[in-house]
Amino acid sequence: MGIDIQEAMHTAGTIGPPGLSDGSRLYTQTHPRPERSETGAWIGIFAIVMSFAAFTSAMIVRQGATPDWVHFELPRLLYVNTLILLTSSLTLGLASKRLRSVAGFSATAPTEKAYSEGMIWLAITLGLGGFFVIGQILAWRVLAAQSFFLSTNPSSSFFYVFTAMHGAHLLGGIAGLAYMIRKLAKTNGTARTTGLPALSVYWHFMDGLWIYLLVLLMVRT
Amino acid sequence: MKTELLLFAAGLALLGSELGAGSPPTPPATGTISGKVTYTGTPPKMKPIDMAKEPSCAKQHATPVMTENVATGPGNSLEYVVVYISAGDTPGAAPTELARYDQKGCQYLPHVLPMQAGQVLQIFNDDQTSHNIHPLAKVNPEWNKSQPAGSAPIDTKYDKPEFIPVKCNIHPWMHGYFVVLNTSHYAVTGQDGSFSLKGLPAGKYTVSAWHEQYGTQTEEVTIGNGETKTANFTFKALPY
Amino acid sequence: MGKVFAVVLTLITLVSVAFFAMHTWWLPPDISTTGKAVDRQLDETLIGTGVLFLAGQLMLGFFAWGASDKDRAEKIKPFPGGATPLVTAAIILVGIEIFTLTFVGSKAWGAIYLTQPDPSSIKIDVQAEQFAFYFRYQGPDGKFGGVHPEKIDDGSGNYFGLDPANDLAARDDIVTASLVVPVNKPVALTLHSKDVGHSFYVRELRVQQDFVPGLDIPLHFTATQIGKYEIVCTQLCGLGHYNMKAYLEVMSEEDYQQWLKTQGGQ
Amino acid sequence: MHDVSSQPVAHQHIAPTGFLRKYVFSLDHKVIGKQYYGLALVAVFVGMVLSWLLRLHLAYPNWHIPLLSKFSSTGAPGGVMTPEYYLSLLTMHGTLMVFFVLTNAPFAAFGNYFLPIQIGAEDMAFPRFNMMSFWTTFVAFLVMMASFFVADGPPISGWTAYAPLSAVGGDAGPGLALGQNLWAISIALFCVGSLLGALNFIATTLDLRTKGMSLARMPYSTWAWFVTSVIALLAFAVLLPACILLILDRVAGTSFFIPGGLILSDKLQPHSGGSPLLWQHLFWFFGHPEVYIAILPSIGIIATILPVFTRKPLLGPRALIGSMIAIGFLSYMVWGHHMFVSGMNPFSANIFSVPTLVITIPATVMTLLLTASIYGGKMRFDTPALFCLGFISVFISGGISGFYLAQPSLDTYLHATYFVVAHFHFVMAVASLFGVFAGTYFWFPKMFGRMMNETLGKLHFWLTFVGVYCVFMPMHYLGLVGNVRRYSAFVDDYLAPLIPVHKFITIAALLTGAAQLIFFWNLIWSRFRGPVASENPWEATSLEWSTTSPPPFDNFGGKHPVVNNGPNEYGIEGTNGSDYVMQTAAPRSA
């Protein structure tokens, strides 16, 4: 089991600035552990992967259960949405690159320029996220117009379930993004955005998850 | 002189008419519609019900109980047909006497129970086992209650006219009907297929006969004071 | 206190085991060709686990006894040999137990569920519904009529949704509320459900099989004892679950033929 | 963790003022732990009363249970339960006990309170998530209880809610309309709450361990909570989708679990093509790990408490932790053993049977290690110690019957009989609760600063210990005779002779239940009247005993303990004549 590795990590970790390795409050700095919010993000991703794995297996079982599966054309709009989401990942990358110094990973104080640019990129990311969600809803309407509803056929049922679940999770990301922007704006950049790496991890994952779902839906429906 | 007599007579007549108007009118004799419900063709043969699952009921029946969806009698008579006034009758207030429905020997007694809308219905469990009453109402509210052995009767009523199939969820063979009507004039045919609707004031009526399997037939009947008219119904039966 | 615990635990253990050993409450005699293996499997498991149970509980009581009433001066004693031999022993012993049980058990299971029914076996269609079983025999023509769910009508006794009007094969199908089979003749059932999940359980046959709505599930057995046995539902199916049962009547060949004659078709 | 140093976050050091923030919407893991414990207490009380009613009805079907008709006139006309009401109460008993008691008490309640303290942290990694997870669970509880008060009562489909019975709606029977909706919504909420909680536990264990608290030095209870939270994260992440699909089938007319051509209440159901087995697969993929979510924390608690009272180190701690991990791992490969006879391919039964039996190996190892740890100890028989012994005993009893049910060939006979009821009550319910009792008597001084009453405690133990054997051991015999479970009355000919056994069980159950009232009373009495507890009344080693009872808001009064020793240092030359060494004590030269 991983205990030994952990111990190694500890001994490595205990080499810290003198005076900090005693029981005083600064002890934690001597531990090269990831940001807790980032750990949280990864654990969350772990759980979400599990959920969608469950949904997927349900889909496969259900499709195998009875030959009543109707295949339908995915709304073109979805591909546009995909592009939007991919771009948003890109812009978030640009944002965190600029805000990194703000995020307290480097000793240098943030340059005013980096900060303002970073904020703009964050805002753009937020906007793109919003567009994606709206786009998804429009895609639903397109499908509904072809009278494919939630209960029409297992294929459409799963389509709505998948897109809805993904959308819900993405809204979580959007909320986090908004919170981050507010926090930064309030303190114009001096607030340490420790949540930003976690947020990026989550956002990129949402991105990947969508690609997976899109492929799955293309193959299955 | 003659004129005086005439006047006098007229006066008397007037007086008489005055008096007549004052005194309560003797009710006009009411009429009756009676008749017989029969079938043509061959009805399906009723099947024996195996109650082995419920010994406490099985032992109450010397001969196996038969299904009752098309119960027939001698002379092609058709049982369990509800004959009622479907038009021309002005329904009075719901009667105060209760419509009683029994669960006995894992059978519904009677198989078909007509009642007037709003009339109180009382359901008894006379068996040593739990029963479950599930009237599959669509117009009226649907409910589904179990009635353990020896528990108090269930009181309920239906406000809208409807033909409601009743089933027991515990004993699938138990099937019956609540027939909720908007009139107080109704009857269910017995084994001889005969019925009679009494106490009908003179007038023009639509008489309907309803059978759970063969649907409804209607007849126009006009009766005067104290008349008795006959209305016969004939349903077409199929073996399957 | 430790001694008290040891005594109480020992009593509980012995009483519990006694009732198993004395067969005070026990399975009904098996009447199937496949049940013997199940019973043997049960006995083996009983002995194996009985030993484990006694050993475990008595050891616990014994140690508790030993660990009680120590004065402050007394030193604690380490467990002889430490953890490693104990763990290895456990792994090996339980491992062997598991291996044998699986090896023997899978055969007992296979005999019931992984074999094909004898082609000559009597085919009977079983339908479970809230809350009764109904059984359907092919009748003289040796064919089952088609099933049409929308035609199902308990009121007229058409439990299977047959269509005798248009389906000649359905007319002579025999539908009963009891499962009647000849002794020593293989019987092949097809289980399907009208509404929700149910289960087919006959203790004496040592078989249990769920009905799954939407599936036709095969189950076959051969009854070796004439008599009347209960078929009960073991899958929670609604308010009448407790009362969902039917009878399995195992008859001599002659009685069976006689019974068939008395049963009319649709 | 930079923010700890440079920028203290609000929750970390400043205790909130104001009632709401302090006791209701508190971010303090200790308060949240107590809230979970309280919720579990309420749930277990309701669940227990339900079991009384169920037992009474089974043994004396025609007895008019007082007040019951007041509570539900349709469910129990004149105090005699209708079959559907029996099943409603049965469903609620199972659901409340499994979810709101066995998941909440040993895992969420004690875990929340003691996991951070045992690793020397000031709080959970995400205090806000922590608060949300409790209040989500609380709402889930309210929604579940609400089903008692809707038109035709709680659902009658059992805590496993097998489709299509649970999916088709009111036509399938009373309680399956609104009641089942509430059930599904409640469970979905519960999943969300548990997921948040599990996430928190994992992150906390990984990131917030104090200096020197290597994984190897974590107390076994912390290990158990950690492993359990990983299991829970996976399990509830699967149950949640299952519930969502179930809800859609019920309210949106989809057909995930409902096949076509079903006739219920003489109505052809408007569904087609669904797979009832799909629900069973999803449910049991959660359901089996759920058993370990209930039992592992208790094993950890016992493993932590036992050495304190035997005054000697636990035998083979690494093997014990290894077994926990092994069980957690295996628990995901065995769900099929709940479905041997449920219509899945019979071949898979043999396949599922093997890992199921293999699980008995780590289980046996753990049991043996615990038992052998008692050997040669200087046992102190305080109430927690007694419950440790009791735990080992009932865990053996419950584990043994697993050998039977793990074998398809025997499951064909024993499946869905009282043998199964006996099995999971012993191994999951009673064992887990013994862990909770031990934990309560052990940690109460730390949580409330007062000792619990020993006399009442011992009385509670003896009555409970003997009681549970009287209740559940006979159920094995009933199972052997083939007594089917979930029957609201025994109308089958072969069940009549068993009624006396059922009467015996009922009386035993009532008495055992009454014994729990002693426990409830002890809690209340000791909370206010109990003797004041010292910092470390049991002379234990783990970190929670190195702080005040109860601990300050930030657990260690602004300091962070430094850990130099493992949690297992008993029966040795300790400081000034004691026979143990605290984890925070100076490193031992050995």
Quick structural overview:
Chain A has 221 residues and is mostly helical. Helices cover 71% and strands 0% of the residues of chain A. The longest helix of chain A is centred in the middle third of the chain and has 34 residues.
Report how far the terminal alpha carbons of chain D are from each other: 33 Å
CATH level-1 class of chain D: Mainly Alpha
Radius of gyration of chain D: 24 Å
What is the helix/strand order of chain A? HHHHHH
The unreliable regions of chain A are: 1-33, 103-107
Tell me the CATH superfamily of the largest domain in chain A: Cytochrome c oxidase, subunit III, four-helix bundle
Helix proportion of residues of chain A, in percent?
over 70%
Would you report the number of β strands of chain D?
A: 2
CATH architecture of chain D: Up-down Bundle
Q: State the name of the first-level CATH class of the largest domain in chain A.
A: Mainly Alpha
What share of residues are in beta strands of chain A?
Answer: under 5%
Query: Which ranges of chain D are low-confidence, i.e. pLDDT below 50, for 5 or more consecutive residues?
Result: 1-12
Q: Largest contact between protein chains?
A: C-D, 99 and 108 residues
Major β-sheet of chain D, in short?
2 strands, antiparallel
Class by helix and strand content of chain A?
mainly alpha
- Counting structural domains of chain D, the number is 1
Task: Provide keyphrases for this structure.
heterotetramer, B: 240 residues, mainly beta, Immunoglobulin-like, four-stranded mixed β-sheet, 2 helices, D: 590 residues, mainly alpha, Cytochrome C Oxidase, Chain A, two-stranded antiparallel ribbon, 17 helices, 1% strand, globular
Write a structural description:
The complex is a heterotetramer of chains A (221), B (240), C (266) and D (590). With 221 residues, chain A is an all-alpha fold. Chain A is 71% helix and 0% strand. Chain A starts with a helix and ends with a helix. Residues 1-33 and 103-107 of chain A have low confidence and may be disordered. Chain B has 240 residues and is mainly beta. Chain B is 10% helix and 42% strand. Chain B contains two helices and 19 strands. Chain B has a five-stranded mixed sheet, with no helix packed on it. In chain B, strands 1, 15, 18 and 19 form a four-stranded mixed sheet that branches. A four-stranded antiparallel sheet of chain B has the order 14-4-16-17, with no helix packed on it. The longest helix of chain B has 21 residues, at 2-22. Chain B is globular. Mean pLDDT of chain B is 86; it is low at 18-22. In chain C, a hairpin with a 4-residue loop joins strand 6 and strand 7 (207-211). With 266 residues, chain C is α+β, with helices and mostly antiparallel strands. At the C-D interface, helix 1, helix 2, helix 3 and strand 7 of C face helix 6, strand 1, helix 10, helix 12 and helix 13 of D.
